[in-house]
Amino acid sequence: MTAWAPCILISGIGFLLLALTYGALIASKRSGKYISGAPCFGGLLIALGFLLSPCKWLALLGLLDYGFWELGLSFWKHRGK
């Protein structure tokens, strides 16, 4: 159980930030104003937390954060400019 303690703590904070980021995204769509979350940071904490766990493949859950995909898309859109 002690091997899972850092994983639970760090990835728990990451999931909280991920939920807040998705909440900010939904609030932005509803209000029509941009409300910033903490993009990529929740996913990075989730990946880090699960890399500290005994099951390393769980770190792929960090890709649930839309910030990773949005960052890649923004680089792809502006590659020729």
Note down, in words, how this protein is organized.
This protein has 81 residues and is an all-alpha fold. 62% of the residues lie in helices and 0% in strands. The protein is built from 3 helices and no strands. The chain has helices spanning 5-31, 41-51, 66-77. Helix 1 (5-31) packs antiparallel against helix 2 (41-51). The protein is flat, with a radius of gyration of 15 Å. The N and C termini lie far apart (51 Å). The model has no long low-confidence stretch (mean pLDDT 83).
List keywords for this structure.
62% helix, mainly alpha, 81 residues, 3 helices
What order do the helices and strands come in, and which of them pair?
Elements: H1 5-31, H2 41-51, H3 66-77
Helix pairs in contact: 1-2
In brief:
The chain has 81 residues and is mainly α.
Which blocks of ≥5 consecutive residues have pLDDT under 50? none
Helix proportion of residues, in percent? 55-70%
Mean pLDDT: 83
Shape: flat
What would you report as the Rg, rounded to the nearest angstrom? 15 Å
As a percent range, the share of strand residues is under 5%
Tally of extended strands? 0
